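Problem: given the chain below (153 residues), write out its structure.
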Amino acid sequence: MSALKDQILADMKGAMKARDKGTLSALRMLKAAIQTEEVSGAKHELDDAEVLRVIEREVKRRRESAATYRDAGRPELAEREEAEAAVFARYQPAQLDDAELAELVDAVVAEVCGGEPTMKDMGPVMREAKDRAGGAVEGRRLSEAVKARLARG
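Solution.
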């Protein structure tokens, strides 16, 4: 079993003991998402990297739902979604700041593109940058940084 999955289960038990219904509910949803991922396709137990991808996906879903609820005039539902995203985000690695992100993107562009980078290099650069970042940066933020760097040439 992955260390991250063990930590989530331990935190679930802690939330049960503390009678923290919000955290417990969010962690149960996260556990269910992980289990669903484990049994879909080729059945296997997820490692930490795969669990991080599930967490990243669930955080993104919650933030998108919160934005939708806010636009629809339902702030109470948006707050619940944001609270769940905050619980899930505890398990993600620390996010890169702007300088670290720019350094990562510059290094990947130099390695992947070699000479003159163009927007045609977006796919290979994104794949490599996402692998190197390992969940330490949101996909949208990474994509914007790569686009800006490739546009500069």
